[in-house]
Amino acid sequence: MKINSLKQLKNGKAGDQLSLEFSDNRLLIDLCGEFDQNISKIESALSVDIIRKGNQLFVVGESKEEAARVLKGFYLRLEEKKGLDSFDIETELHMLNSTGQKKLEDNSGTKTIAEGGFGVKTRKKLVVPRTQAQKNYVMALFENDLVFGIGPAGTGKTYLAVAVGVNMLMAGKVDKIILSRPAVEAGERLGFLPGDMKDKVDPFMQPLYDALNDFLPGKQTSKLIEDKKIEIAPLAFMRGRTLTNAFVVLDEAQNATTMQMKMFLTRLGQGSRMVVTGDRTQIDLPRGTKSGLWEAEELLKKLTDVAFRYFTSKDVVRHSLVAKIIEAYEEVNGKG
User: Fold this and answer.
1) Cα Rg of the chain (Å, integer)
2) Sign of CA dihedral 74, 76, 78, 83
3) Residues 74-119: pLDDT tens digits?
4) Cβ-contact 113, 168 below 8 angstroms
5) Second label for 152, Cα 20 to 30 Å away, from 105, 135, 254, 320?
6) How far apart are the first and last CA of the chain?
């Protein structure tokens, strides 16, 4: 097909092709990738041919408009100094193929929610939802006081929730961020771990620290934690508190018991928002113990003030192999 495409270019059949011109040749080199590997991935995913001539790219094929949007989106990313690696390419193309939908508008990555786009502004970067489910989830986080994000690992449930929390803290919409998760794995072994209580618990909280460090400079994160503007604590530490003017996230909620979930949800105070995230397929509770996430979903799904947003393997934004692994397990369990 490449030979035919080159012939079309030579014959000047403008209707069979789209031409894109890029002003910065250095960025064009980064866009194409080493040995044009980025271009090859786009060609393979969208069944098009892309030919480079000088500072122009010519796209040939039925999906040429879609490929052009992808190319312009990646180039815009490079212009904004966001970088572009093979993982970014694979993730974007995977989302296109999985959802059957076209790429977000070219400028979606440059607008925040407040500006009518889908980006979430944090101190370190602009976070852009990559799938329709993620977009719906982010909008729900801004519009509702209580949101449940349910779906498999790698779909951005906690990551996006923390990003919105940081955004609201920066904007003065909340006074603090509280991040929590059940320390189920600790169980009776907690006492055998070295160090004080913080040393024992922190390993289970590390994913929450990782998300924060993606959105805030390290020194600022430490200062906010020191000033109690950010709290990261096991679910058990929430008992007896009333959480006012706070953005509260409960992660790994499938490992909360019914009583723990009720306790957490009833901590909601004036001016606060809560987000509950979990994966119903990864329950680590003892056999016979019902997941509080399951019961909360059954009891609250009819309430109009509570938003439930669901993710599938098609929304996985980690390595493309992760989605395939999840789908394989779902098929074995009769959920595929």
Assistant:
1) 23
2) negative
3) 888 888 777 777 766 776 676 565 444 433 333 333 455 554 556 7
4) no
5) 105
6) 36
